[in-house]
Amino acid sequence: MAHFSWHDVRRGLAAVRWPLRLTRAGMFVENLWQVTWPLITICLSVSAVLMLGLQDSLLVELVWAAAVTAVLAGTVALIYAVLKFRFPTHAAALARLDATLPGRPLQALTDTQVIGDGDEASTAVWLVHQSRMADSAEKAAAVPANLRIAWRDPYAVRYMALLIFLVALIFGSIWRLDSLSGLAPETGYGNASGPVWEGWAESPKYTGRPTIYLNDVVEGELNLPVGTLLTLRLYGDVGDLTVAETVSGRMGELPPASALEQDFIVMHSGTVSVSGLGGRTWAVNILPDEAPSIEIMDDLEVDALGAMNLNFGANDDFGVEAGEARIALDIGAVDRQHGLRAEPDPRAPITVSLPLPITGDRRNFEESLVENFSEHPWANLPVTITLTALDAAEQQAKAHMSTVTLPGRRFFDPLAAAIIEQRRDLLWARKNTKRISQILRAVSHLPENVFRREIDQLRLRRVIKRMEILSSYGLTEEQQVGLAKNMWDLALSIEDGDLSDALERLRQVKERLNQAMRDGASESEIEKLMTELRRATKDYMQQLSRQAELEAEKNKGHSPSQDPNSMQMSQDDLQRMMDRIQSLMEQGRMAEAEQALTELQEMLENMRVTQNQNGQGGKSSGEQAIEDLGETLRDQQGLSDQVFRDLQEQFAPDAQADRKSGNKNGTGDPDQGSESGGQQKDDRQGEISGEESLADRQQQLRNELRRQEENIPDSNKPGDDSARDALDRAGRAMKNAEEALRQRDFADAIDKQSQALEALRDGMRALSKEFEQEQQSGQQGQGSSNNDRRAEAQDPLGREPGLNGKAGTDDPLLQGEDVYRRARDLLDEIRRRSGEGERPNVELNYLKRLLKRF
Length: 854
Description:
The chain folds into six domains: 7-179, no CATH class; 197-287, Immunoglobulin-like; 293-405, Immunoglobulin-like, CATH 2.60.40; 414-496, no CATH class; 499-556 and 568-605; 621-793 and 815-853, no CATH class. The protein has 26 helices and 16 strands. The strands form four sheets. It has a four-stranded antiparallel sheet with strand order 2-1-4-6, with no helix packed on it. Strand 10 and strand 11 (307-315) form a beta hairpin. Helix 2 (17-52) packs across helix 7, helix 9 packs antiparallel against helix 11 and helix 11 runs antiparallel to helix 12. The longest helix has 36 residues, at 17-52.
């Protein structure tokens, strides 16, 4: 049986002694916090404001008002805390601790037995109850203080004060409290050793001049630039010192002369004076700020990709701040022909910023403006360029460049150049879309003779179709830009992709030829593949020559070094190698032919076209002149054929319908045939707009002949100008033909054109003879090494190759004037037969091909 005694009461009360003390202490803190939190909040806020130094940036009156308010608020909060604070009693602490225990054991331990005090059984039960309460009291723990006062501070003002105080501790300083000592008003002029006024002259930053402390400047002259900020601070009583100035030109409401703080900007010369104790007077002189100057140093330079380089120089006494180049179209200098005949769409001038030194001195410098305007609509058109320099004082200087051609990228591929020209016309005026689509259709009329890749043909056809559809609904500016972008990308693809495409075609033809030799193909198939090989090789050499021209332009004045061990080959050498390959195959020596074909491919892939002194890859000036004259001869022949057809239409209009029927099997579009009047045009004629007259075309040919005549090299024989005389006769005949065409006298025009053709042929013969004589004289002076090379160049029959890669003796089969007369008679007969519409279409097409060829 358990034993219980009165000792259990003392045991229970002793167990709660420290929890009771801690609970009472917590109640003290709780009561103190509940009555002092307003005072603590005010103290934290005021301390934070003073540590952050806000009193230094406010008016003294505002600081004093805020200080009085803070003192009053603190006093009220202190009185409130004193009146409301209550010290916690022992009974209150005991009650709070007892409330946290189950059954309130502390209250039970302090109770006494009232009922059944003399009864042993009741007493025993009471002792057991108190023993259990004592056990429960031993588990008592201190009750924490309740510091939550959200019901008293619903806006959390205490937290805001604490946050500001923490910010002040981090970013402020307790030493700022010393500034409170200066809030009291001063009397007199302050310390005897301190100044009674201060002044500063702050020059504009762009001048680079330091700030002047006016107290250190004696009376007299003061040189300052325009825009200098003068700041004056007067100390002491108001009215003891006054300021007078005539340099700012201020108007309107002005501060009083006795104002303690005065700021103004120097705009012109004058005087500034401070009157009173320690005052001074200065005569301010304005330092001149000269306007900048800019000049164009050199002519406009252009690189191979069309980027322009314009060197300029600029200077300013304080440095140039900005520069701009303005490029405007010189509409008066534009040759308003063809696509440029239409009224141009409005277009703002081009403005680009001029490059300025980043770290250098901008007072005097030279720079280069490098830009590429190849894609701009004004590329390769006359423009005016104006350079503008601006200094910090917004003074300007300009330099003008009169009419120049805006540089743009040159396209050597004829198809790419034609697309770029039509792109320019499209960007010139949206109303040109119909004309452009017609010309592009004419250019692509014979795709097998124009396009090297089928994808380019499809892309051009897509551009034409899209242009026609959009123009039918009214072409917008955005659609115009989109079409121009597509045409630019297509031209770049044709221009830049030619060399790699030509090399790939060359490899493919070589592989097919090797496979044909291994498979024992027939002679006709071998002949066909060899023809493709010759064509692919010629195409590759042309693209390689074009690339050499580009590299020569990029490296002007820096010719690439030649390897002394390298081997030089001409187009004739390649032609003889292919002839040898074909001969080996015809003899059945396939292994040797395959080996020779591999050597040819390796040689072509490692080949580099070099530029001679005349700038033509592998061609002398004489060869180039002969080639250009041949092109002019073909163009003149084509124009003469056109005039002949127009003359036939005047007398036999039904012949036009017959010629139209012969074009149904062509590769052009049906609408193209109706627009061109059923006329079959070669590639060069297809690029000429249908709106141009025959007389204009004749004038262009005459101008081209004049240009070619100027480039013809002088003859080695003094007084021998037979070639130039013949070309002069051709030019006069072309001029007479032009006049006859303008009068629509087709019969007389044909006669004059025949005279021009005959004179052109005479000029070509004379020029060829001069060139052959130059070659012979040069070969005689080259020594035995050249003789050995000529011997190696001979074919198995001992013949030397002729001009332009033709195998033969280089001598005409027949001598005398009858040969040329017979040739002219033959051409006249072919033209006559081609004009007879009753002949079969097959024969007419064959005769026209002969005319194009010869």
